[in-house]
Hints:
By secondary structure, the chain is an alpha+beta fold. The protein is built from 2 helices and 5 strands.
Amino acid sequence: MVxxxxxxxxxxxxxxxxxxxxxxVVAIIGILAAVAYPIYQNYVKRTRMSEVVLAVSACRTxxxxxxQSGSGTGPGAxxxxxxxxxxxxxxxxxxxxxxxxxxxxxxxxxxxxxIDGKVLTLVPMIGGAAGNAATDMGKAVxxxxxGSTADGTTIPVNYLPSSCHGS
Length: 167
């Protein structure tokens, strides 16, 4: 609307945002935050779980060496030379091995009952099958199966890194 003298004036309702528009923006931001936060929390836990996998990986070398250079039977449960009975990192409570070289790490420090006190396993694979210390000594470990529930992993798969989904 144009007044005398050429001034352009607007009505009060056309100035800035109204309260309703502002509340709509706040609601949209709230919805986005409600969706993004759980996804972010899951991402953080998966990142921390990568540290558990890394800590357990220190056991892979001695077990692989014993299999490849060994003869007879393996050293037995808890005697592969890489076990840790106490905390070895912020997120690893202990690392144990069985007679066939399966590595079992107990998680801690996640502040999540689905992970804390639960086990992650890595199993040496020889020719596509789980290593057997009684029959596979002198053979090379070709890969490692990580995170398989069949091997005793009790940590839910959605918290495991993508490289550790039971294969």
